[in-house]
Design goal:
Length: 71
Amino acid sequence: NQVTEMFNVIEKSGLKLNTIVNSAGVSYAELIATNDKIHDSNMFKKVFEINTFGTFLISKYAAKLMIKNKT
């Protein structure tokens, strides 16, 4: 996936990773419920997956590389 590919490129470059900043994210605004419909749970799940799980993945692979490089 894109995350592992990114960290492979960093590792192969010979540079050391010292810091990460988790600041990316997406949003989707919709009322929880109206007279006509309720919030699309699939959209909420997608936002949660990108923002929360994405942050976890970046942190996990960055930590692995930092430990390997002793940074």
